[in-house]
Known about the structure:
about 60 residues, 4 helices, mainly alpha, about 80% helix
Amino acid sequence: MSRKEIINEVEELMISYCKDCFLHKHHKEDRGRRYAHRFCIRECTVGEKIKSIGSKLS
């Protein structure tokens, strides 16, 4: 898989699932931007999938 294909796959996931995410918006309002971002990376299933795909770039 080429670098460009991996980046496109991550972008498609983010557009499909993360664009209007209710949980991100909720956590951002209640606990702040840093907590919401941390939640997306560590606990969200889509964030974990993006992380695993992104590890192929290294």
